[in-house]
Design goal:
- The chain is built from 3 helices and 14 strands.
- It is mainly beta.
- It has a domain of about 170 residues.
- Strands 3, 7, 8, 9, 10, 11, 12, 13 and 14 form a 9-stranded antiparallel sheet that branches. Strands 1, 2, 4, 5 and 6 form a 5-stranded antiparallel sheet that branches.
- The radius of gyration is 19 Å and the shape is globular.
Length: about 250
């Protein structure tokens, strides 16, 4: 589904096992040399301990109490239930993960033999003692090319659950809206801003999506403006402090 968005090759006879992906857990970007020719995003192999195992308690634990309702709405859509039907119930235990691996077509000197590259999307409360919630590109319209069919978002939680013997790998996302209708004329880059339901920016636009909605990670560069930055500002605070961002390399 990502071919039209420019992130995948047509499927072919090539294949690779998940065990081939990223031997070292601290690697973030690397080539795919085994010949995989299909874009894919998968959760890490091992779930994280220390989290509540049920959806309502998990939402409170991670500071997003709307998680349960958003997940039930997601499952309602996945099951293709009618609009007037009740939301389904999730009774299974929830698995939380601190990373996912994205494989995508990105021909370059550091890509694999068939132009495939892999990267780790991190979503963890502590990465070298600092919280890290990476940004991603999510497919929102397969009929539109490039970034017009995508949306930037920040991954707030990676998790999975089972319902009726089927596993659903998911991501809780904070959406970013496109700023303007075309690329910035000075930089040639798209611009985005975090989406909120209110002008006070206290109620972020969140959604739970299936992991296959994600195309890859994305680097957002703050639009710094003309004012001096405070010396106490740290790089890892950028996504929380700045209000407008350039989308790098899309």
């Amino acid at each position: 589904m990502l071919v039209n968005a420019g992130f995948a090759l047509p499927s072919g006879p090539y294949h690779t096992s998940q065990s081939d992906l990223f031997d070292a857990e601290n690697e973030d970007v690397g080539p795919v040399d085994s010949g995989q020719a299909q874009a894919d995003v998968k959760l890490a192999r091992t779930r994280e301990s220390g989290y509540p195992r049920f959806i309502a308690e998990l939402g409170e634990h991670v500071g997003h109490p709307a998680l349960e309702d958003l997940t039930l709405q997601f499952l309602h859509e996945q099951l293709n239930l009618s609009d007037d039907s009740d939301l389904p119930h999730i009774t299974s235990k929830i698995n939380v993960y601190h990373s996912a691996i994205a494989v995508f077509f990105a021909p370059s000197d550091r890509a694999g033999i068939r132009g495939m590259q892999q990267e780790r999307i991190r979503c963890t409360p502590s990465w070298y003692s600092i919280e890290r919630r990476d940004c991603v590109l999510a497919t929102i319209d397969e009929d539109k090319p490039g970034f017009r069919g995508l949306s930037a978002a920040r991954a707030l939680l990676l998790f999975s659950f089972r319902h009726e013997k089927k596993t659903y790998p998911c991501a809780l996302l904070h959406w970013f809206n496109m700023y303007g209708q075309r690329r910035d004329p000075k930089t040639g880059l798209w611009q985005v801003q975090p989406a909120f339901h209110d002008q006070a920016q206290q109620n972020p636009c969140l959604a739970v999506v299936h992991l296959d909605t994600l195309a890859r990670g994305v680097h957002l560069i703050p639009v710094y403006g003309s004012q001096r930055l405070p010396v106490e500002l740290k790089y890892y605070q950028s996504l929380d402090v700045f209000k407008l961002f350039y989308v790098n390399n899309v």
